[in-house]
Amino acid sequence: MNILNSIHNMDVTTFYWLMARKRRQMLTRASRIISMSADGPLYVLIALLLWSFGHSLWTAIIAFGFIVERLLYFVLKRSFKRNRPADILDDFTSFIRPSDQFSFPSGHTSGAFFMAYCLSEWFPEFYMSFYSWSVMVGMSRIFLGVHFPTDTAMGAILGSTCAMLSFEVLV
Q: Domain limits of the chain?
């Protein structure tokens, strides 16, 4: 249990350090836009576009991977039940209303890394752009005050792992 407390204390310290260094108004606006780009509808649109261009295998990879990712995401959320920063830190209010109660892992970050992995497999010349975007999604979730750094790190691992699994199973 001491290891979990140490990780949590490091997470809180890092969270406060990041909050103290951001230009609140400008970065909050940018973080909202970046975070919204990782909402689910964009992924459905990408899958539909790929399917409409005859890439049914790619669409199947996205569908299968997201089903696995969402199942694991919900199991982890309900198992760990980690409260969000605004719920446990004194005098802190997040900049957006989170979509659910718990913070671990970050679903936005998980979805972003899942898509970055998939798109990088299909369009390798743009991998830096895809992964830069996914890192910005994770950072935006921290800057908006709805996740701790380890929430987004686990989201990145979860999304990437589910994408790898999806390719292993379907390709």
A: 23-170
Sign for the pseudo-dihedral over CA of 93, 95, 96, 102? negative
List the one residue out of 82, 109, 102 whose CA is nearest residue 163: 109
CA dist., res. 40 & res. 58, Å (int): 17
| SS3 state of residue 148 | coil
Tens digit of pLDDT for each residue in 22-64?
666 777 888 888 988 898 888 889 899 999 999 999 999 999 9
Q: Is 83 helix (H, G, I), strand (E, B) or coil?
A: strand
SS3 content of the chain, % helix, strand, coil (to 5): 80, 0, 20
Q: State the pTM of this model.
A: 0.89
CB 166 within 8 A of CB 68: yes
Tokens 């109660």 appear where? 101
In whole angstroms, how far apart are CA 72 and each of 84, 146, 149?
19, 20, 19
CATH number of 23-170: 1.20.144.10
Q: Tokens representing 79?
A: 């198992």
